[in-house]
Amino acid sequence: MNVEVRPRPTLRSDAVSKPAIADCDIHPYPKDKALFRYLEPRWREHLETYGARARQGYLGGPAYPKGQPDAARRDAYPPDGGKPGSDLDFMRAQHLDPNNVALGILNPLRAGQGLQNLDLSAAICRAINDWQVAEWTSQEKRLKASVVVPYEDPVTSAAEIDRRAGDANFAQVLLLSRTAEPLGQRRYWPIYEAAERANLAVGIHAFGYGGYPVSGSGWPSFYLEEMVGHAQNTQALLTSMVIEGVFEKFPRLRVVLIESGFAWLAALMWRLDKVWSRLRDETPHLKRLPSEYIRSQVWVTTQPVEEPEPRRHLRDAIDWIGWDRLLFATDYPHWDFDDPARAFPLRMETAEREGLFLNNARTVYGQA
Amino acid sequence: MNVEVRPRPTLRSDAVSKPAIADCDIHPYPKDKALFRYLEPRWREHLETYGARARQGYLGGPAYPKGQPDAARRDAYPPDGGKPGSDLDFMRAQHLDPNNVALGILNPLRAGQGLQNLDLSAAICRAINDWQVAEWTSQEKRLKASVVVPYEDPVTSAAEIDRRAGDANFAQVLLLSRTAEPLGQRRYWPIYEAAERANLAVGIHAFGYGGYPVSGSGWPSFYLEEMVGHAQNTQALLTSMVIEGVFEKFPRLRVVLIESGFAWLAALMWRLDKVWSRLRDETPHLKRLPSEYIRSQVWVTTQPVEEPEPRRHLRDAIDWIGWDRLLFATDYPHWDFDDPARAFPLRMETAEREGLFLNNARTVYGQA
Asked: Which of A230, B157, B242, B306 could in theory staple to A270 by disulfide, Cβ–Cβ 3.0 to 4.6 A?
């Protein structure tokens, strides 16, 4: 695809002076029926006849507000039609070029990951992976794909990871946060084992659905509660991964928590360390403080950035977590996009800024 | 009961020089069968015949570690026998006197609150309330009782609160954190309405069980995860109370979150404010930022105190929440007791220290 002939946004001249960034959460969508080209006929027919059943009929968690169709920025619809995130040229013109994105991680959602029919789940995931390479990463070297896997079938997931291992189009394995059981549990370990073997980070993106309410308190009434609840749910899955011993068992595993906020992480580490220090004999498989596993093997993406008043509290919160743990992300093309020029109105040292906006991502995704 | 003749601990001479404190989480237990004296014969017979069924057979959440029987400090067994927390004289000698507790809030657990049989739940709660007055608060003016209520039957709960209204033996209404539905939901509003009418704070103590796993991720494997999970569960119930409009509807309601930690509160307020600012039209019943309701109507007890390294981070976390929001608590006689002399190894201003250890509690519990 020839970048010289596509339309340029007016921002282009400004953009060249902007520092290069990594965007660790970009959502590509297939153009109408595009995915069908990558699916075996058997599964195309299955989808036409039976559709896709998510766990308990609840597809991907509750929908984003209907007032933002496709969960999208209102300006993110490609001029030639199609869904936001479905047109590479438009993504370049609207986001990659003007924001000087040097590394963009593709996180396909609604990628068949949580479906009840595990073979259908695996077939759609494989098609999404083929589609990412054919229509995105092979066309645009700044973008890297995620291996989406049918995570409720970890053995099949591991086979899909093995299939993509060594393929430079892929930079991570993608899971969603709301699974049938807590993500630290042993049934999911084949995924972590395969990711470690392939030297791929494991990204865990908010959303999905495992059959339970977002909180242990039961079913909330409002979408607002679901949105805020992702942070609590992610605290629980990270707790599960630490306490079950995932990081002890897979010491080279790198986990990225995506779109669940980050300001809660310090308080969680404090609490984990305190409780574990008193009850550690329940988990003799753990050799280090919970926070030590997190500080060496877990990263968090920044979007949606918390916005305390006064803002210096945000600096403190990052100081506690560690500046090397944060990965900038925009969530493009979604409605709650964080603009890299405005998302961090903080004083930062040059090394802090470069780490947060680019170098931490290069490290965790092996793109140095 | 004559305090002059009971045994004095050797610490007594030190204690007189200690500053007075409030302890907002003391757990009294009935002596063997003591509760039966306060129960109607019908319910005594019922308990002998049928026992008490908690929701889905799961009594009060998973047990504390068996290595700490009765969830207790090993030194908390009264010399004359009985469970920890069952002997007022021993509680005076071991805790109230040496720690100079000027105000102690009794939070009875296993008080029948979450039982499936709502009439049995109400009968046990009423008996526990009578027992607290007869055997505790009428004997010891430093102690104040909690009105325990059968919270899954809010109308009956409100009647129990009305019955205790104006009785100076009681300082709060007590709920547990894991309920059948999130605590902000409208079914629970009669409780808040009655508490506001009675001018009693509502304490929400960790534990209980509502039928769901502690996290939205499903059932955890380890007790450690349950312990850490209380913090997430409490974040969810506070979110529910804010977003459903409990604080807007009941502007004089005072809520105390007990034994769920507190360092997470600032991050939750930031996230609530950010999400609500963008999606506020989902909840037109809310007139103020979520954090404003929390900062004016919610308090948190300190135990178990988070222990970050370096400790100054704890100071920062309290700065964010507000020193006027914190209430000291020990959890006596439980195993994870926080010693008032050691729990806060921080530099504090005199006003901060006096607020945290005593004056905030006097304000919220109306004991000034």
From this structure: B306
Three-class SS state of A115: strand
Region B171-188: mean pLDDT is 96
Sign of the Cα pseudo-torsion (B204, B207, B211, B217, in order)? positive
Q: Which residues contact B31 (CB under 8 A, 6 or more apart)?
A: B82, B83, B86, B87
Q: Do B224 and A243 touch (CB under 8 A)?
A: yes
* Of residues A214, A235, A307, nearest to B270 (C-beta): A307
Strands A298-301 and A326-327: parallel
Q: CB contact, 8 Å: B183 with chain A?
A: yes
Measured between beta carbons, the chain B residues lying within 8 angstroms of A239 are 215, 220, 224-225, 228-229
Diameter over CA atoms, chain B: 64
Q: Which residue of B has its CA nearest to A68?
A: B279
Chain Cα centroid distance, residue A25: 6
Calculate the CA B305 to chain-centre distance.
15
Q: Is the dihedral of CA B38, B40, B45, B51 positive or negative?
A: negative
- Tell me if chain B has a CB within 8 Å of the CB of A355: no
B193 at the A interface (CB within 8 A)? no
pLDDT tens profile B331-340? 999 988 889 9
- Any CB–CB contact under 8 A between B345 and chain A? no
CB within 8 Å: B282 and A223: yes
Its pTM stands at 0.90
Structure tokens at A175: 């899971």
Is-contact B108 B128, C-beta < 8 A? yes
Q: Tell me the C-alpha distance between A29 and A107, whole Å.
A: 10
CB A45 within 8 A of CB A123: no
Q: Which residues of A195-210 are buried (b: 16+ CB within 10 A; e: fewer)?
A: bbebebbbbbbbbbbb
Q: CA-to-CA distance for B42 and B48, rounded, in angstroms?
A: 10
Residues comprising chain A, all counted: 368
Write out the two tokens for B213. Answer: 């796993």
**Going by C-beta distance under 8 Å and a sequence separation of 6 or more, which residues neighbour residue A299?**
A201, A254, A255, A256, A257, A325, A326, A327, A360, A364
Report the C-alpha gap between A295 and A292 in whole angstroms.
5
Is pLDDT of B11 > 60?
A: no
Q: Please report, for residues A162, A221, B187, B240, B294, the alpha-carbon distance to residue B246 in angstroms, rounded to integers and kept in the order given.
A: 51, 13, 11, 9, 11
The answer to whether residue B292 neighbours chain A at the CB level (below 8 Å) is no
How high is the ipTM of this complex?
Answer: 0.86
CB contact under 8 A, A243 and B236: no
Tell me how far apart the terminal alpha carbons of chain B are, to the nearest angstrom: 25
* Chain B environment of A233 (Cβ under 8 Å): 215-217, 232
Whether chain B has a CB inside 8 Å of the CB on A217: the answer is: yes
On whether any CB of chain A is under 8 Å from the CB of B227, the answer is: yes
Inter-chain contact B217–A178, Cβ cutoff 8 Å?
yes
Q: Are B314 and B263 in contact (CB under 8 A)?
A: yes
The tens digit of pLDDT for each residue in A131-183 reads 999 999 999 999 999 999 999 999 999 999 999 999 999 999 999 999 999 99
